[in-house]
């Protein structure tokens, strides 16, 4: 079926149908929905090259990834990309991944934003004062941030309530009688880690407990970092009876260190880990099942892609700012403090 055939079925002009399919704001929502429903029913698929010529768009969303961080084997990044792809495939939009060595990351964004390969860019893993945000605003390139920065500029972002989630997790352990609570956080350069530490500290301060630097660690989200941090904690004269952990990958290492020390998870030491909902790492199937703060990263990728499409259809960036709640799910890895 060609565009003219679809327009004839609808009783509309080909121009109106084309604009409705491509998200132009001047087409009213009722007409747009009628066009989209009819196109789906008749299995109409626009020619990608023709659509790009008609709209002046590249038909692609871009992302830059530092190759020195090995993000393509990072389960968080892979799940996030999968979520993006699930949404973009609906509109036959491609993902363009541009690698950078890390030293010239801003130059990579300049090249991507200044070229004709992408219509919008998705930023991930923002730092507190992220220079990519003012750069892309200066270049006039639509973008969505997965996470938050401290920039006052009106830009689109989606984040989870890392501070609230880790405050809630720490408070739950305090309610169980734990006083020596450790934190294994992600890389402290990134905003999410800053918010998580803030939540952890605020829960302790509310009970007049001062955070002990000897019970705090941060690093990349790997099993090895979790193992080494927990091993160090357990060597303290007063080791922790509970640990709040920034990811399931870190938690696997922490669990391994506890077993090496002959300790029982959920009895001698309790753990709450952040779970981004990986299909291959189910906390329910661990022994004992892992208590988690939960927020699905694949769903976040899908929503971020949708927000990028909204920007391209005329939505104001300031109206696309979402903070998602984090659920606390208690399972067998948490229990009362020893002696309670």
The helix content is 40-55%
Low-confidence stretches: none
Our Rg estimate from Cα atoms comes to 24 Å
What does the main sheet amount to?
6 strands, parallel
Number of helices: 12
Strand order of the largest sheet: 2-1-3-4-5-11
Counting DSSP E segments of at least 2 residues, the number of strands comes to 12
Inertia-based shape: elongated
Secondary-structure element order, as H and E? HHHHEHEHEHEEHEHEHEHEEHEE
Specify the structural class. alpha/beta
Distance, first to last CA:
72 Å
Q: pLDDT average, as an integer?
A: 90
Strand content: 15-25%
Description of the molecule:
The structure is a single chain. By secondary structure, this protein is of the alpha/beta class. It is 41% helix and 17% strand. It has twelve helices and twelve strands. A six-stranded parallel β-sheet has the order 2-1-3-4-5-11, with helices on both faces. The chain has a six-stranded mixed β-sheet with strand order 7-6-8-9-10-12, with helices on both faces. α6 runs parallel beside α7. It is elongated.
Question: Keyphrases for this structure?
Answer:
6-stranded mixed sheet; alpha/beta; 6-stranded parallel sheet; 340 residues; elongated; 12 strands; 12 helices; 41% helix
